[in-house]
Structure formats: structure tokens, C-alpha cells
Amino acid sequence: MKVLAFAASNSKQSINRQLAAYTTGLMPGAEVEILDLNDYEMPLFSTDREAELGQPEQAQAFFRKIGEADALVIAYAEHNGSYTAAWKNLFDWTSRIDQKVFQKTPMLLLATSPGPGGARNVLNQAKTSAPYFAGDVVADVSVANFYDVFDMDAGQVSDQAVAEQIRTAAAALAEQAEAVTA
Fold it and tell me: 63, 98 in Cβ contact below 8 A?
């Protein structure tokens, strides 16, 4: 099973990337690729730029990566209650290739923040909009107070209740992905 994972953030120290990596590590036997959104940086999307540039190779490559995956793990960072500019721009360019950006790939949506909100606002936006873009959301998990529940040195969740919630979601994603590819 091929699992594509990324943080919907371009932060080099992204706690969401750490959460995505931890989660994919709970999927034994999976072939995991973790993307860095910095590799998909493009000019700010506009229809004028699209007319000038067409569909940039970065957006095409990102769309192909999703199409090659059996499962997606996306961890959303929240900026001012919404998506990061880096994610929104990549998503906008990619959606112009095909509105079915997620290509019916089973998805686990995650979000975390240092505070008590756990990036729930952006997670709810992502979960609500995913079906419009051919997203098959199998599970979603919001992790509040990241630094209180994640052992940075060990690279793992230290809170047992949160760890169990993520294990259950990762198992559901693996089961759904295996059912789809069987």
C-alpha cells in the first residue's frame, strides 16, 4: 500500500509534518512518501497567471503523486482559522488540472496546534470540502496542545488517549485503502 503524506504547511519545523510522519509510522508494511510543500512552490494563483503559465509542472507533479497513492494522510496547519497560504495556493493550481484533486483516494485528515483549539476550524473546513474534490475522508483527528501530548525527542504521541485515537484512525485508513486496492 502506497501512502502519501504531507503537512498542509510550508514551515520547516511544522508540527503537522511531525504528526503526519508519526501517523504513517503506525501503518506497518506501508510504502510511505512524505512530501514537503516547499517543493511545490508556485506563483500566487490567478486566472491571469494561469492564462500566461498554463498548468505549472509543480501542480501537475502533485496531482500525479495523489493519483499514484493508495491512501493520503494530510495534516492541516491553521493560520487565522483557515488554510495556510502555501496549501491554498497549491490546491488552487492543482484544482485547475482537475477539480477531483483527491481522485477518490481514501484520506485521513489530521490537524494540530500548540493551543487548545487543535486547529479544529481548518480541519472542519477540509473535512467538509473534501467530498467536492473527490476526497474519501475515512477519519479525522484534531490534536490540541501538541507540545503537551507529543514527545519531540522520541517523535511520538505521549498521551495514551490521543495515541489510541490516532492508531484507530490510521488502522481505518489502512483497511479502507486495502479494500479499495483489492
Answer: yes
The reply to whether the predicted model has a pTM over 0.90 is yes
Using one digit for the tens of pLDDT, what is the confidence trace for 13-52? 999 999 999 999 999 999 999 999 999 999 999 999 999 9
- Which CATH code, of 3.40.50.10310, 3.40.50.150, 3.40.50.2300, 3.40.50.360, is assigned to 2-181? 3.40.50.360
